[in-house]
Design a protein that fits this description.
The chain is α/β, with parallel strands linked by helices. The protein has one domain. The chain has 10 helices and 6 strands, in the order αβααβαααβαβαβαβα. The chain has a 6-stranded parallel β-sheet, sandwiched between helices. α1 packs across α9. The two termini are about 30 Å apart. The C terminus is likely disordered.
């Protein structure tokens, strides 16, 4: 019993140390975007593009508010209120530079909200009619007026270049996640994305976009499945919030992610370390443990 206790603590310390090394490397900047990238894969965040939360994410918000003694009364104080929009904005910029498509990978609810948001951006002709719109209210509560209209234009211009994917067909997955089923974690996102790749074998290099604090776990999810699902593919990791200033990131996310990495690697869902097929800036420093 004592041996297992010591082993678990040593493993937790090693994961935490490696995670901090990766966070330091990520803070130095995203990789250079080149024409070799032929797809941008954008993972969904906790707050949808129109400000909604899933049931599980709402529980997370409630638990964080409780943890702070109820002092934080607004969602934006314990969780990033714009992570989905900012992930997609970065994905759109990368795709424009690499001249490729964006694939957005979310839950059923997140995907439906993105459809609503794109429809909103494509049909808001009269700025005067936006004042009473809930989507416009959400944007206005998080961005300055000029940026609100800039965001609407960004998504309107890019809307035809965004593909939204749900789940994968049963034959593509050992755990039988069917097409249209809800995606509940990063592993499901990896497997549903692999179903898309299976239909597009010409894609050899993808840029993966998420929040920076989440990328170490994403890299391990990809590595775990690379030999089978992503053979001969290379991934670049691109993060938003490289300075870790978003609400809840330092206070909660950067503390919980090493625990999640340890737990998921122990049960075999992800690899213990990121593999050579996953690259980001300062890659050499990530291999020094």
């Amino acid at each position: 019993m004592y041996y297992n206790f010591v082993k678990q603590n040593m493993l937790a310390a090693l994961v935490a140390k490696q995670y901090l090394l990766e966070m330091d490397a990520l803070s130095k900047g995203n990789p250079e975007v080149t024409g070799e990238i032929n797809l941008v894969w954008c993972l969904s965040g906790r707050t949808t593009v129109i400000g909604n939360h899933s049931t599980s994410d709402q529980k997370l918000i409630d638990s964080r508010i409780k943890e702070t003694g109820g002092k934080e009364t607004a969602d934006k104080n314990v969780i990033d209120p714009t992570d989905d929009i900012e992930r997609l904005r970065l994905a759109i910029k990368i795709a424009a530079k690499a001249n490729c498509k964006v694939v957005y990978n979310g839950t059923i609810g997140e995907n439906e909200d993105l459809y609503k948001f794109l429809d909103f951006c494509n049909h808001c002709e009269n700025n005067g009619q936006l004042k009473d719109n809930k989507i416009f209210e959400y944007l206005s509560s998080n961005y300055e007026p000029n940026e609100v209209y800039a965001i609407i234009k960004e998504f309107k211009d890019a809307s035809e270049n965004i593909t939204i994917i749900y789940g994968q067909t049963a034959e593509d997955s050992k755990d039988k996640v069917k097409e249209g089923d809800d995606i509940v974690n990063s592993l499901h996102q990896v497997r549903s994305f692999s179903a898309y790749i299976k239909k597009h074998p010409d894609i050899k290099q993808a840029a993966c976009v998420s929040s920076a604090f989440h990328l170490p776990r994403v890299s391990r999810s990809i590595t775990k499945n690379q030999e089978v699902l992503f053979k001969n593919m290379q991934f670049q990791l691109h993060g938003i919030d490289l300075e870790y200033k978003k609400p809840g990131t330092k206070e909660f996310d950067m503390k919980s992610e090493p625990v999640a990495i340890k737990n998921y690697s122990e049960n075999g869902s992800i690899s213990f370390m990121a593999g050579s097929g996953v690259k980001w800036s300062a890659q050499k420093s990530l291999n020094k443990t």
